[in-house]
Predict the 3D structure of the following.
Amino acid sequence: MPDSTRAIDVVAATTRTDEQLAALFGAVYADYFVPVHLDGIALRTMVRRFDLDLGASRIAVAGGQALAIALLGLRGTRAWVGGMGVVPQARRTGLGRRLMEVVVAVARARGCDAVQMEVLEQNAGAIALYRELGFRAWRSLDVWALGRALPDAGARAIPAAEARAWIAARRTAPEPWQRADESLDRFDLPESPLRGLEVAAGGNRTGAAVALVAGGRASLLQMAVEGADPVAAARALIAGAGAWAPSVRFLNVPGDHPAAAALAAAGATLEARQFEMALALDSGAA
Ligand SMILES: CC(C)(COP(=O)(O)OP(=O)(O)OC[C@H]1O[C@@H](n2cnc3c(N)ncnc32)[C@H](O)[C@@H]1OP(=O)(O)O)[C@@H](O)C(=O)NCCC(=O)NCCS
């Protein structure tokens, strides 16, 4: 370990208040590619929605000052790094690597078989660090935003639970963590219930989607399409979501999902491209 990290303690995130953690989160992302602003309430929302476990998450502290944070989400045997960083003045001293090694060890000790995360494609430093630790990128995930209405193509509202069940029966790849079923369970609140959509062709359902509508935006959370023209089905569902709010957003769409092609063709903005990276943990290793 480099000398500069010798006097640094790595402790559980529960040693700080939510407000202190939010401030630290803001400090480590101060010069990030996209603005990151968090207060204690937003942090608590993140913790609840994404099953972040503050007892399993870690911060690095020197002389009482917090320098780095790694938030770990836990769901059964899966673990997810839901944000990590080092304050700018403490970078390139091995702290990021050390903190990641600790949370990976925590995940392993909790019986997880993999740790995953997303990283922006332009974040070469973080990608280099994760690759050194054995993480591998296995797919790209794109963030899309559409600020205009598309012509109605026949999508109609159905109960969110019905849409979710239809999608789950057709899922060929895991949903990204922030749109996984467990996340949707947390999103589904009485004051803002999830909404479902379907589209059909020739009397058969060819697609379904789930969205959350809030703050002038319809956020698509999950979508499955099938049939002869899956891109057209995706476009119809996007149009249906667009009828609920002035803008539609779809976070972390796999590059090969028909919705990506439909959004690109509709002139949507590609706000960010991320890589989903994962590290398999040896079973039984402690
Ligand atoms: C990415 C980040 C966490 C790295 O933390 P760090 O403490 O500086 O990283 P380390 O000192 O442990 O670096 C370990 C290795 O990772 C690689 N690495 C880290 N930062 C790098 C950079 N900017 N460019 C190239 N390689 C880098 C190097 O191989 C480095 O080893 P070396 O210093 O011996 O060459 C830090 O830059 C950061 O907080 N950035 C802003 C927030 C962020 O991007 N978080 C990740 C979101 S997914």
User: Anything to note?
Assistant: The chain has two domains: 3-112, 143-273. The mean pLDDT is 95. The first helix runs from residue 18 to 28.
